[in-house]
Amino acid sequence: MIRELIKKDRKNLRSIIVDTNHFNEDEVDVAMELIDASLKDPKQKDYIVKVYVNDDNELVAGYICYGKRPLTESTYDLYWIAVDPKIHGKGIGKQLVKYMEEDLKAGGGNLILIETSGKAEYEGERRFYEKCGYKTQTVIKDFYRSGDDLFVFCKYLREL
Description:
Elements: E1 2-4, H1 10-19, H2 25-40, E2 48-53, E3 60-68, E4 75-83, H3 92-106, E5 111-117, H4 123-131, E6 135-145, E7 148-156
Parallel strand pairs: 4-5
Antiparallel strand pairs: 1-2, 2-3, 3-4, 5-7, 6-7
């Protein structure tokens, strides 16, 4: 089940983000800032946070955070997505992405951008985005730091 973020989810989400072993301390802090912004003001529209909850045990298993790209008409960013690494491969990430796409399309969204690292350990994430229908739009060499490129993926929700 995918639902709104609630305060009691915070601790579990932080554990999921840390347990992925992909994010450094600064990145974890940024992810938590967006979660906290959403919790502090549920009516704000900058960061839309949805959580996936297992039907059988009602535990948070993952989340997605997305929002409108400033100064654009119908372009959105997928800021963060994380699924409990103990249950990767069960389709939870795909369900979260599909939910986001349907939500944005219903609200007039047209283009989704995703930025991610080019490090070797992010190969699985890049393949995941491709399996979800996202195309590599550009690669900027040494963007994050030397040897860590920026990959920008995009997907149009409506035909051009």
